[in-house]
Design goal:
Strand order of the largest sheet: 3-4-5-2-1-6-7-9-8
Structural class: alpha/beta
Shape: globular
Number of domains: 1
Order of helices and strands: HHEHEHHEEEHEHEHHEHHHHHE
Strand content: 15-25%
CATH architecture: 3-Layer(aba) Sandwich
Number of helices: 14
Bound molecules: S-adenosylmethionine
Distance between the termini: 18 Å
Largest sheet: 9 strands, mixed
Radius of gyration: 20 Å
CATH class: Alpha Beta
């Protein structure tokens, strides 16, 4: 649709899925926020040195293609490590092995084992792990040759929320103990208790994806507290409404807002009618309803950015112009332009 460029996704997704513009906008906001923070991380200088070694660790990476895109852009870090269940890494290893394009990106000399679910190149590793097992995590980090002293960007997009709360906390705590100069990008759901949140939980549960940790960290404050309690020095959580309206570049926003009209939500809107019945009865215009839906949807997802900064390179890193680690809500009431 033109929201973003991904020259590799077709290798991982057999049939394109048509999604409503509101969902596409949500994906775009998430992609764009991650990209902006990733580029900032990759640009950070250490002792004035531009080309310093950095690493990215993606927890529950699934079929994400970010590494291949960064390679194409000339932005790939010294080391990029992806972890997931073996069932997933085996499939990803098979796709990489069977594509000359992807094999080239991980390096022709990379060792690929579909059976073990592993890919091991000089700068890219794909390894199987159960994130609930911290010993396994340690083993895989060693196997991947990660250097805990290097600046590390950790990505967990829609992953920790599926673990039980104890396991989620253990992963966050492990990451803090392991990487002294690190940024943690957490993207996941909030607000389970309102009508929209309950519908969101039911939709995911009906697909076998229980949001096991959602009640443990139901708000922006709780997400920040999760990190601060587990040893991170700073943590700021913003909902996607605020991320979209104040963090994503205005030019990008106005570009993607011209891509699709918000004209096809009646069915989805009806699904959510419980929260909007008042508005529905009042017969507000479809445009107004969609505007409200957009707000509600984006208030139920958030990014938490947590920092450990032993090297002192992240002074300016993260969401701007906010007091860090206040523990207070940083949600904004700003609404996106439509
Ligand atoms: C919703 S998908 C998100 C994938 C990817 N992060 C993205 O945003 O496109 C969740 C991923 O987490 C992985 N996952 C869930 N629980 C896990 C666990 N205990 N250990 C390893 N991976 C896990 C799943 O296999 C799946 O690939």
């Amino acid at each position: 649709k033109g929201y973003m460029t991904d020259d590799y996704i077709h290798l991982f997704v057999k049939r394109p899925i048509r999604r409503s513009p509101i969902i596409n906008r949500g994906y775009f906001a998430r992609y764009s926020a991650l990209r902006k923070l990733l580029y900032k991380f990759l640009d950070c200088k250490i002792n004035g040195e531009e080309k310093c070694k950095k690493q990215i660790l993606s927890l529950g990476a699934g079929f994400d293609t970010t590494y291949f895109q960064l390679q194409d852009e000339g932005n790939a870090p010294h080391l990029y490590v992806e972890l997931d269940f073996k069932e997933v890494t085996s499939k990803k290893a098979a796709i990489i092995e069977n594509s000359s394009e992807l094999r080239g990106k991980v390096g022709e000399a990379a060792l690929i084992s579909q059976e073990k679910g592993e890919v091991s190149g000089d700068h890219y590793k794909l390894l199987p792990v159960d994130l609930r097992d911290i010993q396994q995590l340690d083993d895989m980090i060693s196997l991947a040759d990660m250097d805990p002293s290097l600046p590390t960007f950790i990505i967990a997009e829609c992953v920790l929320i599926y673990l039980d709360p104890e396991s989620s906390r253990s992963v966050v705590s492990w990451a803090s103990r392991t990487f002294s100069t690190a940024a943690f990008f957490l993207y996941e759901q909030i607000h389970p208790n309102d009508a929209f949140g309950q519908q969101m939980i039911m939709n995911l549960e009906s697909r076998g994806c229980g949001l096991l940790s959602l009640h443990d960290t139901p708000t922006l404050q709780a997400k920040e507290k999760l990190f601060l309690d587990q040893g991170w020095r700073r943590a700021v959580a913003w909902d996607m409404l605020k991320v979209y309206s104040t963090f994503i570049d205005a030019q990008e926003r106005s570009r993607i807002e011209r891509l699709e009209l918000f004209d096809e939500f009646e069915e989805w809107y009806m699904m959510q009618a419980s929260i909007f019945s008042l508005f529905y009865l009042c017969q507000i215009t479809i445009c107004q309803k969609l505007f409200l839906l957009n707000i509600v949807l984006h208030e139920h997802y958030c990014v938490t950015c947590a920092i450990n900064d032993a090297m002192g390179i992240f002074n300016e890193f993260g969401f701007p112009n906010e007091e860090h680690a206040t523990g207070s809500s940083t949600a904004s009431t700003t609404v996106p332009s439509m």
